[in-house]
Specification:
2 domains; mainly alpha; 191 residues; DNA-binding; homotetramer; 10 helices; Tetracycline Repressor, domain 2; 0% strand; Arc Repressor Mutant, subunit A; elongated
DNA sequence: CATGAATGAGAGTTCATTCAT
DNA sequence: AATGAATGAACTCTCATTCAT
């Protein structure tokens, strides 16, 4: 299948689907998405093989967007702490700015139809982060734990932090910094 | 009084529903639950007002079970660290032993039909934990953060830890203890 | 089947069923009737073979009650006009006083489950009326029409009259008398 | 524009529904209608929002058809009696030719789901009839009764007449004329 | 490519009825 | 006799998907 002619329509569908699924749940009908987008019901199936394909695509694209956001403008030559904090800040700010995408990510994560290869798909994009971490663990800055455990802890704590930043916007910065402090203190090796 | 409502049947339905929903998602049919339980389709509606009611009940019961597990045998007179570690261990061990319940809890948490009063329902049962935390924050042992942020961080890190304990059973204890160490170092105040 | 032990319960069921069916339609559940009556669901089936039997019984009893009401205190020795007016008044007053029964009668009349022998069942009770009419037709007071056409016309006009008496209670007597006048002028032979 | 909605299909559905509902009652299943029509079950819901909507539409369309039939070819310049007789004949002949529609009208009239605005919907179409009656009442030809009472009496007597015309087709004309005679004698003012 | 009518399997739920208590 | 839990067929309606236009 050649690439569909209108990337604009495809993007509109992805954007509207994100909004609809985030707010109504994954059981929202495909018709509600095309309707809100102003397209005919059948058009969705021109751009995606089916609803499952749409949701899997959504997951992949959102995760990729998140990965890019996390690693944007990463200072190459700084200390591990500053680099980690940079990533942390990128991450939580993305989450605060993209609540629908974040909410949807969580819904899809526990969805029965997420394909395994999609679930583990963006690993490549995180290679940079992987190296950084690996280095920090080996050099003794970080606690001696498997890399994926480190990454999962970062994710878990950052996403918890985002929730509170969004819920209590006035103290957004406080949560962002306290959250990082807790993460950093937890993860670094004690003498 | 005719045949009395059977708590056994109710429990069977809850148990089977937990298994089915955890594995197939919340979109699993009510018929698949009664079928697996060996009951007629209508029987589910004798014990629960509808599918929504069943799922909300499931959430409340699982959360209550978790709360009870977490706080069981809590040593009253020990140090904050030992008490916290006790809770941590109870929590992650419950999660490892009850993977279906844990998986289901996450599915329901992002489900569109969870009633707010059910979502916030077991707060009372956690009062004990609340006091413990509040005390530790005030006394300066813990970082100066809102109590609910503390609780959310505990949850996030413990659940991440459980995943790794389950995935890599051979190193289960290592993850349990490393996880706690990271949590504890993060949350306690540095001089 | 011996007569059930409690005529009181049977009557309560009939009365409650009349009310419920009149207000919610014949699709009201048997449970809603036993519930409103304060009985168990199964009790209805002790007194009636099934829902169909209940509704057929209801029809027969209401029609019998109506027949008795129509013919009560009928002056034997009066003019045909006074006798007819007496019947007319009895009829419409019964209808105004028993709106649920009247409404239900109409619902059952167009119901798919009414058994033919029940539909035509109270003919016997109307024998008296039959004779009166037959006599009046033969003697030339009434128009020369089949007796059942006469009876149907009486019914149709009286029931229309009742509707207006109920809707406009202040003019209840006017409608009763105008209605009769129209009926009487219509049915009697012109010179 | 893809396949356009087919008025033919809509009409087929209405016609089949009329037949099925008239014969089996309003509790006949939607599947029995689409089945008899040779369509898929879901097709009914493309043309009507639901069963309720179908039945309400049926009522409106049948009533409109009846109104048009009643007033067709009404001679403008004739006597009140000839005009009234014309309407009467149109009415009862429609009823005799459309027994399903007539039976259904009565079922829907006592159905719990008939929407008030639909029940009172065709009033406009009857304006012509309203004027005629109003004029005749004021000019002293008709008895001094409210217009709606007049209309209800006409309906009641005409429909009773139709029943006998249908039941005894050989004497159809006799019933039609006798019926009118009774109606006319009843409704006109006596000196 | 875009459309949206048509499809029909499958869903949750209701309910008259049965029968063990 | 009275009860009400248990039943499972039947219902209306939804919806992802197809395909004629």
């Amino acid at each position: 299948m050649a690439r569909p002619l209108s990337p604009g329509k495809r993007n509109t569908l992805l954007a509207v689907a994100t909004k609809v699924f985030a707010n109504k749940g994954l059981s929202a009908s495909t018709a509600s998405i095309t309707g809100e987008a102003g397209f005919a019901e059948g058009t969705l199936f021109v751009y995606f093989k089916g609803k499952d394909d749409l949701i899997n695509t959504l997951y992949a694209e959102i995760k990729l967007g998140l990965a890019n956001a996390m690693l944007s403008d990463l200072p190459k030559s700084n200390s591990v702490e500053l680099q980690t904090k940079h990533i942390w800040n990128n991450y939580v700010e993305w989450g605060v700015k993209n609540p629908d995408q974040l909410a949807l990510l969580h819904k899809i994560k526990v969805w029965e139809g997420l394909r395994p290869e999609v679930r583990d798909g963006t690993a490549a994009r995180f290679a940079e982060l992987h190296e950084l971490t690996e280095h920090a663990i080996k050099s003794g800055v970080f606690n001696d734990i498997p890399h994926d455990f480190f990454a999962a802890m970062l994710t878990a704590q950052a996403e918890t932090t985002m929730q509170f930043m969004r819920k209590d916007a006035a103290n957004s910065d406080m949560f962002r910094d306290k959250g990082f402090e807790i993460f950093w203190n937890g993860i670094t090796r004690k003498k």
